């Protein structure tokens, strides 16, 4: 996968939403100025794949990515980053460091983040409200933001579960991912 996959994945997600009359749920892309101002306030460059995603859609609007995360806008990234860095001290025992860049929010204090400036530590990490994280989930969707969006688009277009979550029900007013195991129990 390349960073071109990010725009193609967003295109597929947008088409899935458009086919259901829901494409207005996605935010328009961020301007170069918005991305630059975000980086200026953070004090470092955001990971390139996040910048690519923001150029496509400056947040996911009301569409939730799996399993329960809303993609953040530039202003949302700053808001969550400022909250997390004000709560967690910047020392060696901290569960959240200033170079962690939140890109998705679960609405209850948890976020997904990428680590800026460290190629050796690529991949998506999770920071909960309490400070713990995702651990080592082997599903390939967690390898990078590029993989996350690719697998999200793939699940939507094929209807196949993704890491134990079923894609949103087309008829639901909320586009939320459901636990695929619960669906199987309900069907029995």
Care to describe what's here?
- 38% of the residues lie in helices and 12% in strands.
- The chain has 188 residues and is α+β, with helices and mostly antiparallel strands.
- The protein has a single domain (4-187), classed as SMI1/KNR4-like (3-Layer(aba) Sandwich).
- A hairpin with a 3-residue loop joins strand 1 and strand 2.
- The longest helix has 16 residues, at 4-19.
- Mean pLDDT is 84; it is low at 183-188.
Indicate the topology.
Blueprint: H1 4-19, H2 32-42, H3 48-56, E1 64-65, E2 69-71, H4 74-87, E3 100-105, E4 111-115, E5 125-127, H5 145-158, E6 165-166, E7 178-179, H6 180-187
Antiparallel strand pairs: 1-2, 2-3, 3-4, 4-5, 6-7
Name the descriptors.
disordered C terminus; 38% helix; single chain; 6 helices; 7 strands; 188 residues; SMI1/KNR4-like; alpha+beta
CATH topology: SMI1/KNR4-like
Strand content: 5-15%
What characterizes the major β-sheet? 5 strands, antiparallel
Mean pLDDT over all positions: 84
The count of DSSP E runs of length 2 or more, i.e. the number of strands, is 7
Compact description:
The protein has 188 residues and is of the alpha+beta class. Helices cover 38% and strands 12% of the residues.
């Amino acid at each position: 996968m390349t960073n071109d996959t990010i725009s193609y994945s967003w295109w597929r997600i947008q088409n899935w939403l458009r086919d259901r009359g829901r494409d207005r749920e996605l935010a328009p892309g961020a301007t170069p100025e918005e991305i630059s101002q975000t980086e200026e306030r953070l004090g470092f460059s955001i990971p390139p794949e996040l910048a690519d995603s923001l150029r496509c859609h400056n947040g996911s609007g009301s569409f939730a990515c799996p399993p329960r995360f809303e993609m953040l806008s530039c202003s949302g990234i700053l808001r969550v980053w400022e909250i997390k860095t004000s709560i967690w001290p910047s020392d060696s025992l901290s569960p959240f460091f200033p170079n962690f860049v939140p890109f998705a929010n679960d609405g209850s204090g948890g976020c997904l983040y990428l680590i800026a400036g460290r190629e050796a530590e690529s991949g998506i990490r999770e920071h909960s409200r309490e400070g713990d994280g995702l651990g080592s989930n082997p599903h390939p969707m967690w390898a990078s933001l590029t993989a996350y969006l690719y697998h999200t688009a793939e699940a939507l277009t094929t209807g196949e579960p993704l890491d134990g979550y079923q894609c949103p029900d087309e008829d639901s007013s909320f586009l939320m991912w459901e636990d695929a195991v619960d669906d199987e129990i309900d069907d029995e």
